[in-house]
Specification:
This protein is mainly α. The protein has helices spanning about 15-45, 55-80, 80-95, 125-140, 145-170, 175-180, 195-200.
């Protein structure tokens, strides 16, 4: 997506996308903050210790996971402009709310070219978020945060990613199916996407 198109019949313009994007940002912020706060409160009300009693070496591993997750999230933006991420997220929300059909681009102009972290995992941003949450949970020894990380991972795995992949399949057809067959969904396993040129060698 190199830019946002002017508003035309049946296609949302800048204002529609901006409003939807703000709704997305507010919804995600409230969801993440509220979710963690609820689990932290439940732990305190239960009168239980929230920590694991982990050795410092394991907690340092949590710090490493936290840094790695932040690195992956930052790496995504080397290959996708933040505006493009905003537009695609807004478009997906519109489709999730059944305001647009899956195969409508809704302002998206990015071609399907798996590069950078997308060559190793289909959902690198979600992988980064999950890694950050788990890393922080281990680093600060927080059971509520660990539970919240598990809930987020399940939400991504069973609901959000399948919906987004249905959308991408409707937009890019066989190209996306080929990509999906080569690259793992949420957690990298070392496999890398090989495009038609590489596969023919």
């Amino acid at each position: 997506m190199e830019g946002l198109p002017l508003k035309t019949a049946g296609v949302p313009g800048r204002r529609d996308l901006a409003v939807t994007g703000l709704v997305v940002l507010l919804f995600l912020t409230l969801t993440y903050v509220t979710g963690y706060a609820v689990f932290a409160l439940l732990g305190l009300l239960a009168g239980r210790q929230l920590g694991f009693g982990l050795p410092i070496e394991v907690r340092l591993l949590g710090v490493a996971l936290l840094v790695a997750g932040m690195g992956v999230a930052a790496y995504v933006f080397r290959f996708r402009h933040p505006r493009d991420v905003w537009v695609s997220t807004s478009a997906t929300l519109m489709k999730l709310m059944r305001r647009r059909p899956l195969d409508q681009r809704v302002g998206r102009t990015e071609p399907f070219i798996p590069r950078g972290p997308y060559a190793y995992v289909r959902s690198p941003m979600y992988f980064g978020v999950v890694t950050i949450v788990f890393g922080l949970a281990v680093a600060v020894e927080s059971i509520p945060l660990l539970i919240w990380g598990l809930i987020l991972a399940c939400f991504y795995w069973f609901f959000l990613i399948p919906f987004e992949e249905s959308e991408l399949q409707a937009l890019f057809g066989e190209s996306y199916l080929n990509y999906r067959g080569q690259v793992p969904k949420l957690f990298p396993n070392g496999r890398r996407f090989r495009g038609p040129e590489e596969a023919s060698r």
